[in-house]
Design a protein that fits this description.
- This protein is an alpha+beta fold.
- It has helices at residues 14-32, 63-77, 90-102, 118-123, 136-139, 147-153, 176-181, 190-200, 219-231, 240-255, 268-276, 288-295, 335-345, 351-357, 366-371, 378-388, 401-416, 422-436; strands at 8-9, 12-13, 53-58, 80-85, 110-114, 155-156, 159-160, 163-164, 168-169, 171-174, 282-285, 306-308, 319-322, 324-327, 392-394.
- A hairpin with a 2-residue loop joins strand 6 and strand 7.
- Helix 2 packs across helix 13 (335-345), helix 9 (219-231) packs across helix 17 and helix 17 (401-416) runs antiparallel to helix 18.
- The chain is globular, with a radius of gyration of 23 Å.
Length: 438
């Protein structure tokens, strides 16, 4: 899809819409007179404003970490930040905010939004470009491997609209205690994954080399996209490399028997239970599993949870990443306050403080990794290692990403349950994506 394509917004092109909105904001600034919106360091002057409250919507579990960094902001700006509980998924984001945005209104000034909804909001003209808001030093704080993800899910037409605040990537957890007992090393390639997996797999007793949660909706897509990042495939193109990823998963299940067929009915709770039940030698899982395992105090030992680099396919040792980020609605009631707040929360000085308060904010930004240097935190350590090794791959992109992911789910499921051949599954996926359009 060309990024130069105009998008219709209630009969207006996206460019016309943005031009009109920018003009309105410029007129408001001019009418306010010089000085009112000038910045002083990181903060705007502590002047009395007609509206001195900034509303931030973000999931409730992150509120305490946000509150901890607000006193300096409020003192230096004269603004008061009001926190609201935000939606927990991209689909909920669309349901809650799209009607208001479509009416030219917004109930919030800043919000945390997900990969699944952000492209839709951006292309509809509902999100403010951040080119003149977020300084370059903030963008420079992210590793180079984030470039593709930021360009696809946080940007459009050359402008950036969202700043990542969460880093969700599939880590490769290994039972180092098991490997050491057999004198083995963690698999570094797909071929070694099969060889080492066979050393542990005992299907008759429910023991496997590896596993994952593959239940629909969404979880099957996650793992197929993970393997495709290693094979070099574009899952939404259903290309040859994606076919290689699907075939590898099929072979792990049926040919090599190192991966349980029942995983097609497993969610992450079932997947984790297999691992902590001493039934799996290694597996991909999201960062939250570290806390889940540590919470099982009778079972947990560090050597049972050693994170290694993902086994490499043809495209190398990769794992796609995604997450949530901060955005400003085009119709934010307190636009100048929203700009100051998002600049503050994403700054190199404040981002590490948020990360210290809530693991959801831990990212491989230079400032955050520096703040955690010397701290014994497996996820932080792995995050730095993964970033240094160039493991993070951009999340597969489609402008209608939620629907496109469902197509991957359906095509992969029909192949893995032997309803379609690989060729037919790929053709099915290509046809469905074509019908979905852009």
């Amino acid at each position: 899809m060309s990024t130069k394509k105009a998008v219709s917004i209630n009969g207006m092109s996206r460019r016309t819409f943005l031009k009109g909105t920018a003009g309105s904001i410029a007129a408001a600034l001019a009418a306010a007179g010089p000085g009112k919106f000038m910045t002083q360091g990181m903060f705007a002057p502590a002047l009395i404003r007609q509206n001195n409250t900034v509303v931030l919507a973000i999931q409730a579990f992150a509120h305490d970490a946000i509150k901890a960094v607000l006193p300096d902001f409020e003192k230096n700006t004269g603004l008061t930040v009001q926190l609201e509980d935000g939606p927990v998924s991209g689909n909920e984001m669309l349901t809650k905010y799209a009607p208001a945005f479509a009416s030219g209104e917004s109930p919030v000034d800043v919000f945390s939004d997900a990969d699944d909804d952000s492209p839709t909001f951006i292309r509809a003209g509902y999100i403010l470009p951040l080119e003149d808001v977020i300084p370059q030093e903030t963008w420079d704080d992210f590793p180079e491997s984030f470039g593709s993800q930021i360009e696809k899910f946080h940007s459009f037409d050359g402008a950036r609209y969202r700043v990542p605040h969460e880093f969700a990537i599939g880590y490769f957890f290994t039972r180092k205690d098991w490997l050491d007992e057999k004198g083995l090393k963690a698999p570094a390639t797909w071929e070694e994954m099969v060889e080492v997996g066979k050393e542990f797999a005992d299907p008759a007793n429910g023991v496997w080399g590896t596993t994952d949660g593959l239940i629909k909706p969404a979880l099957l897509y996650v793992y197929v996209a993970y393997l495709a990042s290693q094979s070099g495939g574009d899952v939404f193109a259903f290309d040859e490399a994606t076919g290689e990823a699907l075939q590898f998963l099929y072979d792990m299940i049926y040919t090599h028997k190192i991966f349980p067929e029942d995983a097609l009915n497993h969610d992450y709770t079932a997947q984790n239970a297999l691992y902590t039940g001493d039934k799996v030698a290694f597996m991909r899982q999201w960062p939250f599993f570290q806390s889940v395992a540590e919470g099982d105090t009778e079972w947990y030992k560090p050597e049972k949870m050693v994170i290694e680099l993902p086994p490499a396919g043809a495209a190398g040792s990769k794992a796609w990443w995604g997450g949530w980020g901060f955005s400003i609605p085009q119709f934010a009631p307190n636009m100048d306050g929203a700009k100051e707040l998002i600049k503050y929360l994403t700054s190199n000085e404040v981002a590490p403080k948020l990360a210290e308060g809530q693991s959801w904010f831990i990212m491989p930004r230079k400032s955050i990794l520096a703040a955690f240097e010397g701290v014994d935190n497996p996820i932080v350590t792995a995050m730095g290692v993964y970033a240094e090794a160039g493991v993070p791959a951009a999340r597969p992109f489609h402008s209608r990403v939620a629907e496109a992911q469902t197509i991957v789910d359906d095509a992969a499921s029909q192949f893995l349950t032997k309803q379609l051949s690989l060729a037919d599954a790929l053709k099915y996926g290509q046809d469905q994506i074509k019908a979905l359009g852009e």
